[in-house]
Amino acid sequence: MDPYLRVEDLRVSFNTTDGVVRAVDGLSFSVERGRTLGVVGESGSGKSVTSLAILGLHDPRRATVTGGITVGGRQLIGRPESEVRRLRGRDAAMIFQDPLSALHPYYPVGRQIAEAYRVHHRGAGRAETRRRVIELLDRVGIPQPGRRYDQYPHEFSGGMRQRVMIAMALVNDPDLLIADEPTTALDVTVQAQILELLADLQAESGTAIVLITHDLGVVSQVADEVLVMYAGRAVEQGTVEQVLLRPQHPYTWGLLSSVPSLRGDAEADLRPIPGNPPSLIDVPAGCAFHPRCRYAEHTAGRCGTELPELRAAGTAGHRVACHLRTEERARRYAEDVARVGVAR
Amino acid sequence: MSERAERQDRRLAGRSPGQLAWLRLRRDRTALVSGAVLTLFVLVACGASLIELAYGIDPRDQFQGKLDGSGMPLGYAGGISTEHFFGLEPGLGRDIFIRLVHGLRWSLVIALAAAVLTAVIGVVLGTLAGYLGGWLDAVVSWITDLTLAMPFLVVALALTPTVTLRFYGQRDAVPPAFGIAVLIAIFAVFGWTSTARLVRGQVIALREREFVEAARASGAGLGHMLFRQLLPNIWAPILVSFSLAVPQFITGEAALSFIGVGLGEEIPSFGRMIYQSLEYLQTDPAFVFFPGVTIFALVFAFNLFGDALRDALDPKSVR
Amino acid sequence: MTDAATPEPLLRVRGLTKHFPARGGRRRSGPVRAVDGLDFEVRAGETLGLVGESGCGKTTTGRLLVRLLEPTGGSIEFAGRDITHAGRRKLRPLRPDLQIIFQDPYASLNPRHTVGRIIAMPLQVNGITPAGGRKARVRELMELVGLNPEHYDRYPHEFSGGQRQRIGIARALAPGPRLVVADEPVSALDVSIQAQVVNLLRDLQRELGLAFVFIAHDLAVVRHFCQRVAVMYLGRIVEIGARDDIYERPRHPYTRALLSAVPEVTRSGPADRIRLTGDVPSALDPPSGCRFRTRCPKARDRCSVEEPALTRRDGADQAIACHYPEPEPGAVG
């Protein structure tokens, strides 16, 4: 089957007074219907910029977007705004991190969802729209949807608001859902509910989901595939089992070993990655991660000069952008896990 | 670290937010031009006496000999000549240029004094009300609302003569300094509210910031809180509001003088000059032109500079 | 380690309460019961974690401890002195002993001050001049938290989030405190930076023998930092005990649910998850009886009538506020 979303060599840059910010620099991935891709990265990795680019939400006066974004077989980049807008909300929808700022404070939530519906269903009558919205509110787990329809955003709790956002995103039965840190602002018990809801809805409708998050735990719970981003580029890509259980890139190793866990030795030190993520105005030459990578010295200087391409590594479908040779990588990783527990 | 990053690092290292604003201001062409114009105006105002000396004409000198029978200046364009750069007034025959120079001086003195006074009152009341809150805040807000509710022109019209009469008799000559003081006082009484509101809002926003809480948690007293923690963070909006208040007071002074409650005849003033010149709008347009253009240029330059200052101090504000 | 016979605790909190007056709203309502009767102790050199979801009152508690907020009721005793309603003057001699680290590395540093001035602030405010001078002490502190002392004259905007948090830590350490309240000190940081700061705090805690009240919503971070943990829900402590007891043998249903909701990389699927329904109720109008009962899978009639007190079994350290706690492992039944 052809993937529903295909992103090819996406590049997004912003002109600022301090210089050109290359927020996304040659990113390719694809998502099939009914699958969830987790995009993982720290702040400044370009993950949110990517999500906005997929929906054509960048201001063309500020951002330069090149490459290819195909949604349901249609190429988006370079199309007029009116065409992209038709796609937005109907074929592809977005859930934001902060539902309070994404909802209008002065309109009842039902009306806001109804409006999103009518934009793409011109002929829909008032009663029919209301029925549809209430049915959706019910489906996303909002109790008393008929009464809740007429309430304002401030009358909802954080978790309920995020459910409203999800209802709004789903009102036109999109085939692609982009969720940008959908649970970051929520408590863990509510996060668990929302993640479960997303999974249930996906099982029902076969939506393709791009889940953008910094939380490796969230990704491991709901994603099928994972894309790890660093400084605007993909450094590792594969299934959840491949990337999170058999990671190949030193950055992924570092991330995984620096996350505190509920298991294991609580007295042992965490193993952070040294240094800070790079400024996107001045990305290090070669592999952007090399100044923080403890293995950079083993590639005869290639890491500092040559940009590593994503190449197959490990099992089928697993790809990594690193100059270390596969055998050497496996050996060093095993050694370091045994010796210091990785990272650094 | 790459060489470029290192260079950038060194270039930006140790720059305070104030220095960064100064850098941005220097890069702004509008700021440069309006700043230069303002500097010129201020220099002229400061050197008014020197200019008078070099020019050789007193603002009160009357050149009746250079007027025709109906009191209109001889020569072209209101009598412009090498002796009288901007020509002469019809009727009294006084030199317009030197009167403008003096008018500029008094206009700036009044506007700057009023702006400084309003800024001081506004900052003191605004910070105290914002930081301490409670009854003090309620009282200050109440006075602010009361002041805003009073119609400026009506009060100024009613108050100026009353105050003058309180100190001087019906026929006494009122010294010019007294008129200036009354004007400044009126502007100060009406002008502090906007600064106070601005400062109060800023302080309330800052009060909840964690760095302020950090100082409180360390046991900092009121003085430290206000002068070390809060004020350094609000001088930027205070400066902007100051630079935008000055042109307001310039036009305010001109307007009051225009309707006759501002400065009297003893002191040259933009408002008086424009008022007198309106009679000659048809016959001697040069008389209207020079004071009009001067006050326009002055106010325009101040406003442009104020806007540029705001952009430099707050780079996030997008026009 | 946490024997009841140890000497006087450094911090003793009894029945601590903070009610905020409810503002606005259409109906007249009672106060927001942000913190509603807390009892806990922190011994010198001990780290206590306060965990809970938003609205549980953990941040308010932190603010109360350093007396940024005035308690409505209860008492706070620090180093043997009652500071519940102490004014600025009375607190003054204790201020250097009691410091706070904030969550937001951007808002917590005065943007108009140099790093040197920021770190020296608690010294300046309290009139402390260490041997060798303030500047030398600040440089020493910068070194201690992993900052380059050369950057003494730089401004906060020139630092990354992680470095800024180090500045905040150095400021808190400047007057040589005995107890540090850390309010979500790493939650605003990137994953790879979080670990750096957690390690730094741990090293400093051990090296300087500091006591910590560590407030966080991230259970895994708390587990790595704290010896004792208190779980809060709607202004109350529902369970408190030694770290391993709380994490390995949680007895309150809320603690269990909270722990099972944490998405872990190593865990596959949500199979063993205890699913809580709904959100945390409003602190304006907390449920009657046990506050957790509206979401509790084990709630019975008694829970809505009678509020369970935080009780510990004789000799045990772990205390639970629940009518029907999980049986202790090893206990019969």
Automatic annotation (TrEMBL), chain A:
Domain ABC transporter: 5-256
Main subcellular location: membrane
GO BP term, example: peptide transport
PROSITE patterns noted in UniProt: ABC_TRANSPORTER_1, ABC_TRANSPORTER_2
Cellular localisation: Cell membrane
Molecular function terms from GO: ATP binding; ATP hydrolysis activity
Keywords: ATP-binding, Cell membrane, Membrane, Nucleotide-binding, Transport
Family as reported in the entry's similarity comment: Belongs to the ABC transporter superfamily.
Protein name: Peptide/nickel transport system ATP-binding protein
Species this protein is from: Micromonospora phaseoli
TrEMBL record, chain B:
PROSITE patterns per UniProt: ABC_TM1 (PS50928)
UniProt xrefs under Pfam families: BPD_transp_1, OppC_N
Name assigned to this protein: Peptide/nickel transport system permease protein
GO biological process: transmembrane transport
Keyword Transmembrane helix set for record: yes
CC per GO annotation: plasma membrane
Gene source species: Micromonospora phaseoli
Keywords: Cell membrane, Membrane, Transmembrane, Transmembrane helix, Transport
InterPro entries associated with the record: BP-dependent_transpt_permease, MetI-like, MetI-like_sf, OppC_N
Membrane topology reported for the UniProt record: Multi-pass membrane protein
Homology family: Belongs to the binding-protein-dependent transport system permease family.
PANTHER family linked to this entry: D,D-DIPEPTIDE TRANSPORT SYSTEM PERMEASE PROTEIN DDPC-RELATED, OLIGOPEPTIDE TRANSPORT SYSTEM PERMEASE PROTEIN APPC
Subcellular location: Cell membrane
Stretches assigned to the ABC transmembrane type-1 domain: 104-306
Transmembrane segments: 32-57, 108-133, 139-161, 173-192, 234-264, 285-305
Record carries keyword Transmembrane: yes
From TrEMBL, chain C:
GO BP: peptide transport; transmembrane transport
Family: Belongs to the ABC transporter superfamily.
Record PROSITE patterns: ABC_TRANSPORTER_1, ABC_TRANSPORTER_2
ABC transporter domain sequence ranges: 11-259
The UniProt record lists the keyword Nucleotide-binding: yes
InterPro entries given in the database record: AAA+_ATPase (IPR003593), ABC_transp_ATP-bind (IPR050319), ABC_transporter-like_ATP-bd (IPR003439), ABC_transporter-like_CS (IPR017871), Oligopep_ABC_C (IPR013563), P-loop_NTPase (IPR027417)
Keyword annotations of the record: ATP-binding, Nucleotide-binding, Transport
Molecular function GO terms recorded: ATP binding; ATP hydrolysis activity
Keyword Nucleotide-binding: yes
Listed name of the protein: Peptide/nickel transport system ATP-binding protein
